[in-house]
């Protein structure tokens, strides 16, 4: 009915204080971090209060922003493009352009903001109990808070540089938190590994950003008046049809490599399980629910770039979906051979991240993002549950086989929450996992990636299976080890790394002067397992509740009006008209851009003036008002958008976005399709899931309870299975590859060689001249050596000196010879001259 | 000669004030160390005050132009004038040199390395200060040369007298290397002078005429001369072999000044003299400079990984970092040049800081053998965290100063100046990006092995080292806090420096249309 | 026939003002002799002040001449010129002489010296130099050359009982005479070719076309002076002589008499042979390259400080020669002349200072070995600092005089802009770096090494030596920081009759 | 006139002198050889002076003779000094300082 164009001028989108000032959200924890660092130790609660308060503040603001965003969406006509709330201040300038720092708030960022703020708050509360009496309690909260600051900053980031800033800060914090108990070599190694691996991926981030910036900057500056770093700019540019195929592909691939590293995708996933060496709250916050989704977030955030760069939905296979698929399966398979409960969860996280990636790769943007959302809750819950077990029941061990079993009697709450989250994770209807994961699988199939749909389904099967195994080992059967109340110190020496490390920290608690720590740990040891304290269980309950409920935000099965998440979060693929398109060379258009956008592109001298000038919300207008002065929209757009209105879930939306180049405007999001929900499909996956659970349950009973002779030790007897088990046990030998081969070879031989080269060859070149002279005459040796030892001269000096030595005989002291030399030289010279001038 | 400001005296005072202090100190009896220290620090403070005043008087909106310009006859016969000025490129380094000198002196209050003789030590630092500041404000090649050489002797003595076991070899090596370089540099300057008609040594005049008057081939040769002179100072692979020795042997103060300021003289020379005066030659040389730069990045990193000595490792890391700076310069784009300038300052702050820490570690443990150090965080948490902080800054963590020198430099290589081989530079970019990982590698590896874990047996509590092993003391705090703050501030709000760099760089690169 | 010429002869009118320096010196010399004869030994000390006052006295007319605006004074129909060049050089000689007197004063008091004779010889040699600066005729050049050399031979051998001193004198004498004999042979040929001994006429007659005979003559004469300036390969006498001779004499030889050699060289080349630069340019190119290189390399090997300084001064000579290697190129001659004069001034100040310190230190350590400077800084920081300054100046490190000397040398060299000039410049550049190898050795000894014999009694500096040090150090510093002053002299030092292209 | 013969004589004397200087180890003989060279110079000068028909040559020669005398005086004095200290006039012994 209306063209996107005319609308753009009419629509006045709602906004509000929280949306306008969302950039404050990351600032709160950042300030809190500083406070903790400087005053934390002196505070009654050792600084944790700062952290918790800041997280509450962030949470409150995020909630407010979420509310106002929803208002904004609801207030806008259905097919209007909902402008993100963008602000920017000059952060740095270069080459006459000034680059901003600010906020880019849309559905996606709002979602993640809420998730991060929420989980962080819970985890921080949880930690006050879990790390009580830890020797570096304050540091822990400092890092945790700084992490939240980094993550939130990355989420609100207005441009790539700001995003990288948050990205790297998260990496740093994960380094500090994994290595929190660095007295143990294993922990610090794990920390190093995590940082190093992600950093390796970050090469891609650097390269990709550079490539995209230089390819996009001119276009964005000209048409949108924003820099080539800006997320909005990049999205529009990607869909504008201008970018050369090579540039955008390289950029996308490079960026995706970074995502692989950060989100623990195959083949760079190996750091994530080791990262479990960190305290459990860390695992639950960073390494399951928030930080590790950063990679997924980046893909979702710059989706147009990947959409075009990877040609998503253009072909039946692309890099992202492939990596995602592989990750799902291998990670799930690995989860089977773990005895450490946290590692099971870690691999499950990897595999779930695989789902998200696969979804994004297959054009299922919304389900993937939704999965981020739901996964955060139940996975955090699971981790905290594991933590609660180790904290109260298994005496700081995470070994399911040794120290757990039959715990359901002792810790009902933990058990209940665990079960709920597990069901959610397995994607059982009507738990949240179902609505997200199943949607992903469904859409993947619907978008023509049938093979990957099958992978997804088998993944679901595996998930169900290994979670059942874990559950069984932990809560059913007979109590074993610590769970049975045995207090065996010696066994902790050679436990799985995590337990080991936790225990390391325990030891430190012992020799640390904190008496409280001492007691608390001992009574865990002495009286056997029991339920954890309220501070631990309450977060569990909350999370479990969400594990059930969060799914209904986007419950496709119940029809359109339940799909709020879709409505609020998914960016609408509408053409937004701007000046300069398609003829960007007009003086007028440029002029308008220039004056309208002093906020983002300032000629250097005025930087001072404009550096603190804020973009008005409808600074957007800059890009859309030109419509006001004529430039009749193509009528065809009307019909297109008209169809949008009538479009049900599965309507074939024909907006040019993503499919072809928009002619009179730009798109900020590609056009995506949504699979219509069918109970039949859902039922099928349900069956698969239950099958997995059942099978696994039976196996477990046979193996661990009945100790069935045929099955126990099967892997020992059967070569093939044995090999497979070994293969899994060693995580596909990838670590061996990385550490033993690559790292070793770089760190040791090559570096040594280079150093040798440096010392002997290059340094040699300096001394070389001297050395060759040295070899000529034996007697020179003494001098050179002396002088070198003496350090009198080196290199050229040495040569010179030797030459001097060679000359000395001339100075024989004999008058006659002097005379001879004198006259000889004279005679020769004279002779030459005579001959020349003859 | 246009005068942008009537504060022409500011620079002169700021540069030569230290010498006044030296004169006063000459009359202080050697025995009275406290007094000579006080006088020296007082002088440095006064100098810094002048520097601050300069900062306040500096017209930031005209950062691209020369300010406080003063030009007087000096050696009229050879057409050389006392011609000084300050613009956005010089200002940060000029100011940094003053700050670093003061901080180093404060640090030296109770860290005068053996064989003592504080008087001489402080005098040398003051003389150094004059040389460094002068180099950054000189607008006349002869004047530049004089200041450039002026820093040699003091540093030679600093290393040679107050250095480590192998100090004499190191100091002489440092000296001879630089002498060779600067000799060729001088010849190049003279050639420049005559090829432009023997009219003037003033850099602006040369910029105005040289490119037009000198044919390309000649330019390339002249550039070669300067290249050697500056590259030795930077130091660029393969002229870097003096650096590890010098750094390892030098006393802490020497290392700091060397890393923070002296290395910048070389890069500054490229930015200020070689490239703007001889654009054609610069274009011809750029790929090779870029190549040497990336070799330096990788090579320095590998060198680091092979080190067993903490200080030597940091020294090699300088090679790598200056590699980034040179890479940025070699792109001949203002993007890269800005990054390079920022990188210089950042590297000055960070690596200077690292050397401070290394010095304090040495003082406490009497060794820098990485494998003998461990669990620093247990015994000296503060020092340990500071080391970690610097390591993070040094590996280019966003939010800290290092990032803004490193990342844009790498980026800039994606799109070098028109006429340069894009493919080659993009390869450079990737290699440089790999370098960042290596950087993370060696720094974290260093940090993990020195700071984490339990102290080694020989240094564990109750093994006689307890009295030495104490946490950061107040002089160290005084000396370090400003640096640490600066690292954060510039990291969080880089515009502070880019704002003044960018216009100046733009002016410098006029010849390249950007 | 001769009688016919004789009748045509009329006595020339003599400008006594112009000759005043020479006359005062001469008078002083005679007075010295007489007093020495008649004074009782107890009163002999009078001679020292007398000598120094003579020199200073001779300096006064130099000043007045410089200030008198009656341009060039030409005597004996242009065979004896008093122009700016000669005045500057005379000033240099006289001041150098005065410093040498200061250096010697205490030395004499200690050693068993025959003061009278010594002063007599010193002043005579000075007189020779002062005349050399003005001579524009082969005969007067020859005479003044011998007048400055012969006393020098004797001074070199002054320590009668000391074998080394004898050896020094003997070598210096034999080789010196031999060299001047060669030079004379060249002169005789030249006279034969041109029929005149007056440089200007020779120049006009020689023009620029060369025959082998002319080349031979020119070359032999150049060789003669090359010996004086101890250019390789005519340097062999220098190290031995410098080492053997008494230190003040060495200072005198290495500064004043070398300067005189250069004065003569410059005069002859610029005034008499401007056209034959095809002969002397390559010669100077080779000489200068050889001289600085060989000088440096051999200096690196020395352990005796004086001997090392001998080689160092040889090497410095090489640098002074550099611009002459291109002086024939259009428009370079001027700057070449300037750079020679400048370099000589700077070099004189610095080198005299070095010798002053050598004497100071030697008096304490009683040794001439470089190792005896160990730890000097620890017990005599002042002396060590001054020595550092002088060494830096010799090595050409700003802000001490030396750098400017080298700078001008390079400047005029590069101004020629020929390939050969660049090559020589680069050789020079490398050499200036190599040179630090041995200058640095002394610095290292002083600053970084322990005191060899552990004797750290402070060094006593006698008043006269102190004055000498003051003069030299201040001038070294000033020359380095405000070179404008010195180059001013170098600039006005117009060489009359010089055929500057 | 016999200019060439004179020059020849001069040249011959010169060569003899040089030869003497180079090979003779006896200080006195070396002195005499040098005298030979100087005399060859004198012969040249006189010959040329006649040829050029000017007195300069004569004057020059006179100076040379005078100076030569002075030189020989100094020289012999040194030889005596050397003889007194070493009881020999062999030049080879004068090699304390070398290198």
Indicate the mean pLDDT of chain A. Answer: 75
- Provide the helix percentage of chain A: 55-70%
Fill in the CATH topology of chain D: Helix Hairpins
Work out the radius of gyration of chain D: 17 Å
Order of helices and strands of chain D: HHH
Number of strands of chain A: 4
Average per-residue pLDDT of chain D, rounded, comes to 89
Description of the molecule:
- The complex is a heterotetramer of chains A (838), B (514), C (501) and D (99).
- Chain B has 514 residues and is mainly alpha-helical.
- Chain B has helices at 8-26, 33-57, 90-108, 118-137, 141-150, 152-162, 167-195, 203-213, 216-233, 242-249, 252-277, 279-305, 310-330, 334-365, 376-379, 381-394, 401-412, 422-451, 474-492, 495-508; strands spanning 67-75, 80-86.
- Chain B has one domain.
- Chain B is built from 20 helices and 2 strands.
- In chain B, α14 crosses α17.
- The model of chain B has no long low-confidence stretch (mean pLDDT 89).
- Chain C has one domain.
- A two-stranded antiparallel sheet of chain C has the order 1-2.
- In chain C, a hairpin with a 4-residue loop joins β1 and β2 (80-82).
- Chain D has a single domain, classed as Helix Hairpins (Orthogonal Bundle), CATH 1.10.287.
- Chain D is 79% helix and 0% strand.
- Chain D is built from 3 helices and no strands.
- The radius of gyration of chain D is 17 Å and the shape is elongated.
- Chain D starts with a helix and ends in a 13-residue tail after the last helix.
- Classes of the chains: A mainly alpha (838), B mainly alpha (514), C mainly alpha (501), D mainly alpha (99).
Question: What would the keywords be for this entry?
Answer:
heterotetramer; A: 838 residues; mainly alpha; 37 helices; disordered N terminus; C: mainly alpha; two-stranded antiparallel ribbon; 2 strands; globular
């Amino acid at each position: 009915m209306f063209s996107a164009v005319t609308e753009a001028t009419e629509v006045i989108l709602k906004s509000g204080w929280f949306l306008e000032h969302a950039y404050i959200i990351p600032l709160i924890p950042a300030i809190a971090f500083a406070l903790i660092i400087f005053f934390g130790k002196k505070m009654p609660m050792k600084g944790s209060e700062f952290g918790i308060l800041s997280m509450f503040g962030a949470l409150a603001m995020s909630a407010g922003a979420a509310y106002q965003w929803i208002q904004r969406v609801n207030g806008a006509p259905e097919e209007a493009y909902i402008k993100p709330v963008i602000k920017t201040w000059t952060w740095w300038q270069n080459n006459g352009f000034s680059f901003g720092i600010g906020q880019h708030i849309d559905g996606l960022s709002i979602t993640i903001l809420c998730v991060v703020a929420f989980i962080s708050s819970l985890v921080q509360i949880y930690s006050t109990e879990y790390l009580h009496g830890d020797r570096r309690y304050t540091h822990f909260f400092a890092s945790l808070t700084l992490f939240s600051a980094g993550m939130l900053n990355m989420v609100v980031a207005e441009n790539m540089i700001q995003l990288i800033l948050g990205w790297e800060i998260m990496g740093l914090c994960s380094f500090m938190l994994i290595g929190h108990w660095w007295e143990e070599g294993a922990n610090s190694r794990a920390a190093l590994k995590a940082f190093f691996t992600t950093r390796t991926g970050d090469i891609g981030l650097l390269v990709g950003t550079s490539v995209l910036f230089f390819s996009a900057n001119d276009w964005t500056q000209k048409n949108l008046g924003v820099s080539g770093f800006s997320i909005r700019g990049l999205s529009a540019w990607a869909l504008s049809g201008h970018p050369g195929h090579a540039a955008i592909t390289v950029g996308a691939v490079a960026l995706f490599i970074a995502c692989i590293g950060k989100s623990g995708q195959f083949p760079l996933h190996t750091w994530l399980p080791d990262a479990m060496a960190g305290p459990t709250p860390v695992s639950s916050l960073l390494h399951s629910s928030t930080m590790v989704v950063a990679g997924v977030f980046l893909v979702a955030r710059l989706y147009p770039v990947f959409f075009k760069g990877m040609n998503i939905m253009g072909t039946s296979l692309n890099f992202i979906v492939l990596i995602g698929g592989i990750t799902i399966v291998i990670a799930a398979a690995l989860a089977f051979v773990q005895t450490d409960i946290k590692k099971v969860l870690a691999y499950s996280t990897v595999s779930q991240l695989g789902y998200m990636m696969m979804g994004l790769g297959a054009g299922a943007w919304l389900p993937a993002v939704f999965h981020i959302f739901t996964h955060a809750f139940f996975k955090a819950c699971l981790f905290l549950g594991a933590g609660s077990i180790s904290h109260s029941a298994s005496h700081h061990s995470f070994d399911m086989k040794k120290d757990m079993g039959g715990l359901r009697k002792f810790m009902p709450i933990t058990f209940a929450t665990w079960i709920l989250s597990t069901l959610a994770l397995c994607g059982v209807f009507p738990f949240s996992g179902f609505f997200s994961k199943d949607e992903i699988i469904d859409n993947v199939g619907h978008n023509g990636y049938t093979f990957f749909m099958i992978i997804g389904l088998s993944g679901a099967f595996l998930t169900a299976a290994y979670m059942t195994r874990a559950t069984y080992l932990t809560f059913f059967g007979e109590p074993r080890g610590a769970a049975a109340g045995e207090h065996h110190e010696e066994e902790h020496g050679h436990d799985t790394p995590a337990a080991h490390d936790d225990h390391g920290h325990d030891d430190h608690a012992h020799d640390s002067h904190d008496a409280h720590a001492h007691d608390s740990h001992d009574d865990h040891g002495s009286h056997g397992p029991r339920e954890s304290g309220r501070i631990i269980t309450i977060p569990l309950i909350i999370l479990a509740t969400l594990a059930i409920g969060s799914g209904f935000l986007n419950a496709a099965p119940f029809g359109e009006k339940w799909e709020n998440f879709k409505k609020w979060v998914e960016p609408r693929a509408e053409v937004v008209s701007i000046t300069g398109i398609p003829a960007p060379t007009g003086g007028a258009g440029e002029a308008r851009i220039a004056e309208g956008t002093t906020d983002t592109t300032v000629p250097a001298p005025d930087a001072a003036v404009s550096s603190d000038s804020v973009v008005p919300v409808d600074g957007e207008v800059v890009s859309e008002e030109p419509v006001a002065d004529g430039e009749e929209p193509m009528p065809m757009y009307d019909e297109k958008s008209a169809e949008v209105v009538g479009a049900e879930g599965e309507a074939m939306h024909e907006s040019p976005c993503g499919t072809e180049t928009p002619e009179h405007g730009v798109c900020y999001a590609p056009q995506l399709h949504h699979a219509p929900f069918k109970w039949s499909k859902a039922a099928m996956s349900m069956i698969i899931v239950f099958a997995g659970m059942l099978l696994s349950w039976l196996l477990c009973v046979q193996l661990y309870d009945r100790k069935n002779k045929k099955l126990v030790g099967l892997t020992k007897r059967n070569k093939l299975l044995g090999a497979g088990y070994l293969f899994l046990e060693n995580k596909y030998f990838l670590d061996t590859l990385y550490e033993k081969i690559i790292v070793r070879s770089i760190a040791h031989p090559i570096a040594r060689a280079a150093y040798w080269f440096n010392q002997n060859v290059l340094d040699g070149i300096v001394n070389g001249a001297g050395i060759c002279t040295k070899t000529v005459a034996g007697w020179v040796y003494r001098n050179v050596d002396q002088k070198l030892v003496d350090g009198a001269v080196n290199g050229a000096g040495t040569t010179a000196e030797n030459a001097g030595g060679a000359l000395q005989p001339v100075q024989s002291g004999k008058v006659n010879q002097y005379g001879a030399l004198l006259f000889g030289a004279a005679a020769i010279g004279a002779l030459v001259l005579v001959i020349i001038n003859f | 000669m246009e005068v942008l400001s009537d504060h022409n005296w500011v620079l002169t005072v700021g540069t030569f004030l230290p010498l006044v202090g030296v004169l006063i100190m000459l009359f202080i009896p050697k025995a009275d160390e406290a007094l000579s220290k006080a006088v020296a620090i007082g002088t440095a403070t006064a100098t810094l005050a002048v520097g601050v005043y300069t900062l306040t008087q500096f017209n930031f909106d005209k950062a691209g132009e020369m300010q406080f310009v003063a030009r007087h006859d000096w050696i009229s016969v050879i057409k050389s004038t006392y011609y000084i000025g300050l613009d956005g490129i010089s200002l940060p380094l000029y100011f940094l040199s003053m700050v670093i000198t003061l901080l180093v002196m404060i640090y030296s209050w109770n860290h005068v390395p053996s064989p003592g003789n504080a008087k001489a030590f402080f005098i040398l630092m003051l003389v150094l200060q004059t040389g460094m500041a002068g180099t950054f404000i000189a607008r006349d090649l002869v004047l530049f040369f004089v200041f450039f050489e002026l820093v040699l002797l003091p540093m030679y003595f600093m290393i040679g007298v107050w250095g480590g076991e192998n100090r004499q070899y190191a100091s002489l090596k440092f000296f001879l290397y630089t002498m060779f370089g600067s000799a060729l540099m001088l010849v190049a300057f003279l050639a420049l002078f005559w090829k432009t008609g023997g009219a003037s040594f003033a850099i602006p005049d040369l910029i105005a005429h040289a490119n037009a008057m000198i044919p390309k081939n000649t330019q390339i040769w002249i550039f070669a001369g300067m290249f050697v002179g500056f590259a030795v100072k930077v130091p660029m692979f393969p002229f870097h072999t003096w650096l590890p020795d010098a750094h390892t042997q030098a006393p802490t103060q020497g290392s700091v000044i060397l890393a923070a300021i002296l290395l910048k003289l070389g890069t500054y020379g490229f930015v200020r003299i070689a490239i703007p005066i001889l654009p054609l030659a610069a274009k011809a040389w750029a790929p090779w400079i870029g190549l040497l730069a990336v070799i330096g990045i990788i090579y320095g990193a590998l060198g680091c990984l092979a080190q067993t000595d903490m200080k030597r490792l940091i020294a090699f890391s300088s090679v790598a970092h200056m590699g980034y700076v040179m890479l940025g310069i070699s792109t001949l784009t203002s993007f890269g040049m800005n990054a390079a300038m920022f990188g210089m300052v950042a590297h000055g702050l960070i690596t200077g800081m690292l050397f401070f820490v290394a010095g304090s570690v040495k003082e406490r443990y009497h060794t820098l053998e990485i494998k003998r150090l461990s669990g620093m965080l247990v015994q000296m948490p503060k020092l340990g965290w500071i080391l970690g902080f610097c390591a993070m800054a040094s590996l280019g963590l966003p939010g800290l100063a290092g990032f803004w020198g490193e990342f844009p430099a790498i980026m800039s290589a994606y799109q070098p100046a028109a006429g340069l081989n894009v493919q080659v530079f993009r390869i450079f970019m990737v290699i440089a990006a790999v370098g960042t990982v290596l950087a993370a590698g060696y720094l974290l590896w260093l940090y993990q092995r020195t700071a984490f874990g339990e102290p080694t047996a020989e240094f564990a509590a109750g093994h006689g080292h307890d009295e030495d092993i104490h946490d950061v003391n107040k002089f160290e705090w005084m000396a370090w806090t400003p640096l640490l703050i600066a690292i954060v501030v510039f990291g969080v709000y880089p515009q502070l420096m880019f704002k003044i760099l960018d216009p100046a760089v733009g002016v410098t690169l006029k010849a390249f249309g950007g | 026939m001769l009688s016919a010429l004789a009748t045509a002869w009329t006595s020339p009118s003599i400008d006594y003002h112009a000759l005043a320096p020479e006359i005062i010196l001469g008078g002083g010399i005679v007075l010295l002799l007489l007093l020495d004869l008649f004074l009782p030994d107890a009163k002999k000390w009078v001679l020292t002040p007398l000598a120094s006052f003579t020199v200073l006295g001779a300096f006064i007319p130099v000043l007045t001449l410089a200030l008198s605006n009656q341009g060039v004074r030409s005597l004996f129909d242009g065979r004896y010129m008093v122009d700016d060049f000669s005045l500057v050089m005379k000033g240099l000689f006289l001041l150098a002489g005065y410093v040498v007197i200061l250096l010697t004063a205490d030395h004499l008091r200690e050693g068993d010296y025959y003061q009278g004779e010594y002063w007599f010889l010193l002043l005579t040699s000075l007189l020779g130099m002062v005349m050399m600066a003005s001579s524009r005729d082969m005969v007067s050049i020859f005479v003044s050359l011998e007048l400055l050399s012969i006393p020098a031979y004797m001074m070199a051998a002054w320590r009668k009982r000391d074998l080394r001193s004898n050896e020094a004198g003997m070598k210096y004498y034999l080789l010196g005479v031999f060299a001047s004999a060669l030079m004379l042979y060249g002169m005789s040929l030249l006279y034969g070719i041109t029929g005149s001994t007056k440089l200007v006429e020779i120049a006009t007659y020689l023009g620029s076309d060369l025959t082998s005979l002319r080349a031979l003559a020119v070359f032999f004469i150049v060789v003669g002076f090359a010996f004086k300036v101890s250019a390789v390969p005519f340097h062999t006498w220098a190290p031995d002589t410098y080492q053997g001779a008494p230190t003040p004499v060495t200072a005198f030889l290495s500064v004043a008499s070398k300067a005189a050699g250069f004065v003569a060289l410059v005069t002859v080349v610029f005034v008499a042979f401007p056209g034959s630069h095809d002969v002397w340019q390559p010669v100077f190119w080779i000489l200068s390259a050889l001289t600085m290189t060989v000088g440096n390399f051999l200096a690196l090997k020395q352990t005796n400080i004086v001997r090392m300084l001998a080689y160092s001064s040889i090497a410095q000579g090489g640098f002074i020669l550099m611009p002459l290697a291109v002086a024939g190129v259009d428009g370079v001659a001027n700057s070449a002349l300037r750079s020679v004069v400048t370099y000589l001034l700077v070099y004189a100040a610095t080198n005299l200072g070095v010798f002053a310190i050598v004497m100071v230190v030697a008096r304490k350590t009683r040794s001439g070995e470089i190792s005896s400077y160990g730890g000097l800084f620890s017990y005599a920081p002042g002396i060590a600092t001054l020595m550092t300054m002088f060494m830096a100046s010799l090595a050409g490190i700003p802000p001490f005089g030396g750098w400017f000397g080298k700078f001008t040398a390079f400047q005029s060299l590069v101004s020629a802009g020929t390939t050969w000039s660049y090559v020589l410049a680069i050789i020079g550049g490398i050499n200036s770096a190599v040179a630090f190898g041995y200058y640095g050795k002394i610095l290292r000894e002083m600053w970084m090494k322990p005191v060899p014999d552990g004797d750290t009694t402070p060094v006593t500096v006698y008043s006269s030596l102190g004055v000498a040090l003051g003069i030299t150090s201040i001038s070294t510093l000033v020359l380095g920081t405000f070179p404008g002053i010195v180059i001013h002299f170098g600039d006005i030092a117009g060489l009359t009759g010089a055929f500057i292209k | 006139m016999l200019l060439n013969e004179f020059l020849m004589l001069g040249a011959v004397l010169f060569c003899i002198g040089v030869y003497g200087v180079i090979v003779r180890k006896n200080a006195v003989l070396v002195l005499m050889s040098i005298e030979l060279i100087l005399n060859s110079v004198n012969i040249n000068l006189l010959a040329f002076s006649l040829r050029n028909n000017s007195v300069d040559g004569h004057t020059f020669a006179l100076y040379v003779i005078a100076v030569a005398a002075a030189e020989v005086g100094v020289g012999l004095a040194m030889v005596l000094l050397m003889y007194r200290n070493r009881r020999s006039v062999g030049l080879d012994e004068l090699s304390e300082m070398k290198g």
